[in-house]
Amino acid sequence: MSRICQITRKKSMKGNSVAHSNHKTRRKFNVNFFSKRFYWVEKDCWIKLNISANGLRTINKIGLDAAIKQASKKGYLIIQ
Q: Where are its TM segments located?
């Protein structure tokens, strides 16, 4: 499972870990990512989404159905 949000398409990014001596080493910034089950009322079924915290806020703000339609329109999510 790749760590990419299915709603917002957020993914990890790379950068530098900077020490006090200004010595830089490469590191990875991970997304606040988890998998969560949602009950989709329109389809009358449970779905499991891999989402970030920002994706969860989007679902809370505009609703599950609108968020899924928006993500599938952008090509982030494929619905059967």
A: none
**Element containing residue 66 per DSSP (H, E):** helix 64-74
Q: What is the domain extent for residue 29?
A: 13-74
- Total-model pTM: 0.83
**CATH code of 32's domain:** 2.30.170.40
Please compute Rg for the chain using Cα positions.
16
pLDDT per residue as tens digits for the range 23-61: 999 999 999 999 999 999 999 999 999 999 999 999 999
